[in-house]
Design goal:
With about 500 residues, the chain is mostly helical. About 70% of the residues lie in helices and about 0% in strands. The chain has helices at about 5-20, 25-45, 50-55, 55-80, 85-100, 100-115, 125-130, 130-145, 155-160, 175-185, 190-225, 230-260, 280-285, 290-305, 315-335, 335-355, 360-365, 375-395, 400-415, 430-450, 455-460, 465-485. The model is unreliable at about 50 and about 305-315 (pLDDT under 50).
Amino acid sequence: MNVFTPGFFLITAAVAAVYYLVPAVRRWYVLLAADLLFCVLWLRDPAEGALLHGLVPVLLVLVCAAVSWAGGLLLEAAADRGTGGGMRGGLLLLFSLVCAAPVLADRIGGLVYTDLLHRGTLGIIRAAGSMYFTLRMISYMADVRAGMIRAQRNPLRYLAYALFFPTFLQGPLLRYWELAGGLYEGNAFDRRKVTAGLQLILWGLFLKLVISDRAAIVVDTVYGHTESFMGVYFLLAGLLFVLQVYTGLLGAACMAAGTAELFGFRFRTGFRQPVRAVSVKDYWERFNGTVTAWISDYVVRPMERRRSGRQDGDGLVTWGARVLAATMIGSFWYTGGLKALFLGFLFAFYMIMGELTADARAAAADAIRLPAGSFAEKMLARANTLLWVTIAWILYRAPSLGAGFGMLLSILRDRNPWILFGDELLQLGIGWKDWNILLAACLLLLIVESEQPRHCIRDRILAQHAVVRWGLYAAGLLTVFLFGVYGGAI
C-alpha cells in the first residue's frame, strides 16, 4: 500500500488545521475522524465491486480493535478480582490470537495457500494483516495484564489509540503509555515541533524518493533478469537492496514520525544506524528498533528464566529457542511464505553461531594483534556483519531460494570486478547521472548519520537565522523535486 501520497499530505494538513482550532480536550475526536478516514482509504480493496465486500478489511480491523478493547477490560477485572496469573495469561493469549488472526492468516495461511498450494493470494486478509496495529493492540492488553496501565473504558478513545493514523501502517510501533497523554488531553500548538516535523517529512521523502526508489531500479533490473547477469552484478544488486530496504523503511518511519509531530507528538523512528552494527545481533537490534523492543518485551523476556541472558543453567537449546522465536516474528513482520521461514532460521543461525564463536574470534584477534575496540577492529566487524546481512537479503530478494543460492555461487565463481569501472553499469536501468546522484545522496546520508549521534541536526537547523533555515528547506524541496524517482519504482 502506497501510504505517503500527495493526497495523504493534503488531507493531513487540513486535519492539522482543524486539530488546533478545536478545544484541547476535544482534539482526539479530530484524530479519530482522520483515523477512520485513512483506515477506509488505505484498507478498502478497490478491486471489489461491491462496497461492503471491499470494506471487509476495514471491518476486520474494527473487530480486532473491539476484541482488544474488551480484552483489556476483562484482564483488568480479572486482576482486580485476584485471578491467578496463569488464568490471566491464558486470557491474554486467547485475545491476542483473535486480534492476530488476520496477520496469521496472511503470513502463515499464505505460506500454505500461496507457496505450497499455489492458489494465489488471500487479498482481503492481506489488506487487514498489518503487524503495526495488531501488535499495538496486543501490547496494550499485555500492559494492562501486567498492571502497567489501566484499561481504557471509552471504546472510541481506545479506537483513537489503536488506529492512530500517522503510524497505522508504517510505524514506529507505539505503546499505549507513549501516546495516551497527548492523545486524550490534546497537544498545544508548538511552532518548533511543527517545523521539526516538516523537516523530518522532507528527510523521509529524500530517503525514499532519491535513494531507495533509485536503488530499486537497479535491484529490479538485476533480479528481474538473473539469467543476463553474473558475479559482481549480483553482489552490487545485493548491496543496493540492503540500501533500498533501509532507506525505504527509514524514510517511511521518518515521514510517519514527522506527521505525528505536526500534532505535537514526538517519537523515535526506531532505526539506529544498522550500517554501524558490529555483529548480526547488533544489526538486528539497530534495525527497526521499536519492533525489536516489542519482541524483546513481549516474547523473549517472558520466555527467559533469567534476565541476565544465557547462563549455564539456562542451556543453549532454551536460549536458542528464544532467539529463534524472536527472529521468526521479525521475519514474518515484513513478509510471509517460505522466504520468511528461511530468513528467520538464517538470522537465528547467525546469532547462535556468533555466540558460539565469540571466544574463537577474540583469540584470533589477539593472535593478529588487533586490539579490542580499536578502529580497525570495529571496521572489520562492520564489514563482516554487512557481508552476512547482504547474503541474507540476497536470498530474500531472489525469485526463489534456489535462484538466490545460484546468485551467491555466481558471486564466488564469476569474477568480473571491471564492470564497476565501465559502461556495463549502464545496463542496470539508470545512467551516469543517476549513479552520481545515488552516490552523492549516500554520501549525504553517511554524513548525517555520523553527525546525528553527536548533535541533533534538526535542532541545529532550527537554531539558525531564518534566511539560512528557509534556504535549507528550499534546497531540500528542490532536491527532492528534481532528483526524486517518480512512478517507476517500488
